[in-house]
Amino acid sequence: MRGRTMRIVFLLAGFALFFVNGLFATGTKEAPKKEIVVAVCQANLESAFPQAERIGAINRAKELGYTVLNLVAEGDASKQASQIENAISKKVAAVVCWPVDTKAIVASVNACKEAGIPYIALSRMPADLTNITAAAVVDNFGAATIMTAAINDYKTKMGWSTIKVIELVGDLGDQNAKERTQGYQAEAKRLGFTTVAQVPTEWNAQKANEGLVAALNANPDAQAVYIPSDYLWPATQSALKSVGKLFSNKNEPAKHIFAVAMDGDPNGLQALRDGYLDINVNQDPIMLGQLAMDLARKGIEKQSIPNTMVPVENVPITVANADTPTFWGNVFKK
Amino acid sequence: MLKALVDWTAKYPLLLVDLLLVVLSVLFVPSFASVGNLINFAVQISALGIAAIGLTTVIIGGGIDLSISSNLALASIAGALIMTGHGDGFALWGILVIFAVSLFIGVINSFFIVKIGMHHFITTISMYIFLEGVALWITESRTVPDLPFAFLFFGRARLFGWPLPVIIFAITFTLANYALTRTAFGRSLYAIGGNRRAALISGLRVRRTRTITYLLSGICAAIAGIILTGRLGAASPIIGHFLLLDIVSACVLGGASLFGGRGDLKGTLFGVILIGLISNILDFLGVIFYFTLAIKGAILVLSVIFDFYQRKFSLARG
Lengths: 334, 318
Prior knowledge:
Chain A is of the alpha/beta class. Chain A has two domains: 36-139 and 285-313, Response regulator (Rossmann fold, 3-Layer(aba) Sandwich); 140-283, Response regulator (Rossmann fold), CATH 3.40.50.
């Protein structure tokens, strides 16, 4: 009986502490009026791209006088859902989110809408766009056009009627990957490429490496590689090396396999300088993060946003301009 | 009264750690002590708690089920594939499939471990890898969306103002706790976990009891999977991938001995609360991601040390 009494006393004391302090503690019912907190939720920070997005968003938030609550889900969709719930409880002013899973995030988008909190999609959009406020995106079709144009120029320069291309494909659950492969496929058909192999990578470096090795062994006469992200460049380089086909366009142009990629990360820029990559496309994640924060500001201030999808500019990068100081791959230091 | 308090916290040292974290958070973490956050927190630990109940039962009986998180994922995928794109009428079928798959996996585990006699660790870790591989293979690592509203109900609805996942957790906990503390099954389980040979000689139905624990683990995996998938609105093949460590940690922190024969669900509950509190608090504080795992690990290590010395002190006092 005494033990039971103790338990009841404990429970009541706990609730009393919780609710009484909840009523009087600072910022418990809502964030202090002067502090605007924006939650920046990211799937992971495994590569330079999301790390740079984070820096862009945080720096822009500082300029706007906002506080950033940076939540990283480590690739766990359930954790991300919990993090966004916690952010909503904390009554953040906006949520900027790069989702782990574009379908699983829809419930969180709807929860933000219900709570009156603007949801800004960062580079990867939810499967259902109904309740998003705006999206800071990359122009994947534009980038694919730049890359395939470069392949076509090379084909013309070599005097070939067609060119044999191995296409790496990202995770088709990701809208960016879908658009990059759709863009490639449309241009490849129009320009008369021969796609000798499609390598599904699911944005996994190991899968990319193994798949590309198999594709190169099966197609030893492949002449070009389409790489949908610099994230896959190290795996590609490793695959080319392991089959004895890693040649620089500077030193051994006759044996070089023409390679195109996009993102413009530090690895991609170095590969251009070394002559292993021929063209890259700068899709600035620092600018994406800044843009997302600007869109969050518009959402917070309830300004109208005429175009929900706001893309960052694509800039072609070759060895000639790879050292441009404003490219994020040169700006961003890990 | 003080003695009762001391005795109680001696039995559940983690309770003190939980209370300390709560008090510190209430005082120093803005927005922590709000009704909204309390409810969110309860929902967030529900699936973890239910899975931990299943695992605790197995551990008390002297076994382990490391496949519980993959079981949860594969069963959710199987149910979701039945339901996706269909109306509410398919929700019941989906739920039945989830339970059927989870129970089947429990049967397989118990067959290899109890009937054949394979070691529980290697069997269930192999199953963990196999089941995750199957889930990834059949979905090509995609999530399965478009689930019927009637199914999402289990992850999102409220009854009398309380989230349904929390109610389900409370019911599961109550039933399981009753079974462990008030029934012959529970007494047998502790005896078997403590000394299997002695239990066998005493005439206890060792094989049957151990088989039941793996089936219960499967049932808990199914319930946890339904809640998690209902919350997310989509079934992910890796939904359990990150849960396993949390589930095992909650059980062990809660006092369940990996050698069997020791542990109870109240201790597991406090372990679940601790795991949930750490994530919740770190999110609220916006601690830089690079530090969160280290901080989480440090709190867990300190809790284990505290638990160790608290038990040692209690034993010394007799």
